[in-house]
Amino acid sequence: MEVRFNSVSMQYDENDKTVLKDMSFDIENHSLVSILGPSGCGKSTTLMLISGLLFPTDGQIFFDDKDVTKKDAVQRKVGMVFQNYALYPHLSVQDNIMFPLKMAGVNKKKRLEKAQELADLVQISEHLNKKPGQLSGGQQQRVAIARALAKEPSILLMDEPLSNLDAKLRTEMREEIRRIQKETGVTTVFVTHDQEEALSISDKVMVLNEGVIQQNSNPQQLYDDPDNLFVARFLGSPEMNIFEMEDIEDSLPQNISGRLKQQGAVLAGIRPESWIHTNSEEAVITGITERIEIVGKERKVSLVLESGQMVDIADVEINFREGDMVSFGTDISNMFFFDGDGNRVVTTDAE
Ligand SMILES: Nc1ncnc2c1ncn2[C@@H]1O[C@H](COP(=O)(O)OP(=O)(O)OP(=O)(O)O)[C@@H](O)[C@H]1O
């Protein structure tokens, strides 16, 4: 099922602030889309509006060509998975999976068949007779996914489904969600505030801030070609280093820095992994190495510039020590520029 928002706005209360502002997007059939953004940006509200558990103040919502704006969750036939699993503790795994089918009046033979099929899909067959309390968090979430899929939903909605799991299980389960989504082909919307999670499993990531879509594109594009300063800084860890243009323009070719300024560029950004250690005059920054962190294969250097600005540098060969004065440069193609409103400024030469 394709989902389309047409200028949707949401205000919980007349006197309250507008939580989502004039939101328009398309979610392609059979795709997995993540909604990513900081706390309070409107991720769950967007998901609830797709589900039909909430209704917009303005705008229309379409499932394929059908206007579902006024239809509730049952009419929209959505499947939902929550952070806390929301399983029935007194029912077995099998009964939990079959529950929506029982409510729909499906006969027992068919219910059992479907429960087995879904248990196989989410790889929980050997636990069918257990109660949720006897399962690990990851296994409980598998049951919740199977239950959400039981009625062959038009769309599967997941609100921070992995938040209660430890780091290793989180990684494992996100791969599982991707596999299950691919096998079933069900259009899936996944809410998370974890960028790695969103980038690793999604066909598209919708980045939200303060109820406004900042960018809606494939994960690689978000990282390599951010539309604005918010997206550039939100994605990537450590965060992109940001400089005032005037602090950095001397190291840019004059014709390019002139053109960028003409276009309104006031800030320049360089990702920590784009720096190259150099002794040449082409260095963009020079500073004192304040800290070197080596954790497994990760290398991170914190450099303090003369101005006092701290710069993060990652993935470089470390042939210097803490306290050393070191210089770094980068190719102009690795630099991002932004105007005073935080919008990206691109000159063809700087691309
Ligand atoms: N029932 C409600 N009544 C009034 N305001 C609400 C209600 N639910 C959410 N809000 C407000 O709407 C805004 C968006 O909330 P929402 O839960 O959608 O954000 P979120 O991005 O999912 O946040 P989080 O990551 O913290 O869960 C917040 O400012 C929140 O305070």
UniProtKB/TrEMBL annotation:
Pfam families the UniProt entry points to: ABC_tran
Gene Ontology CC annotation, any one: ATP-binding cassette (ABC) transporter complex, substrate-binding subunit-containing
GO molecular function list: ABC-type transporter activity; ATP binding; ATP hydrolysis activity
Database matches in InterPro entries: AAA+_ATPase, ABC_transporter-like_ATP-bd, ABC_transporter-like_CS, ABC_transpr_MalK/UgpC-like, Mo/tungstate-bd_C_term_dom, NA-bd_OB-fold, P-loop_NTPase
Keyword Oxidoreductase: no
PANTHER family according to UniProt: MALTODEXTRIN IMPORT ATP-BINDING PROTEIN MSMX, OSMOPROTECTIVE COMPOUNDS UPTAKE ATP-BINDING PROTEIN GGTA
Name of the protein described by the UniProt record: Multiple sugar transport system ATP-binding protein
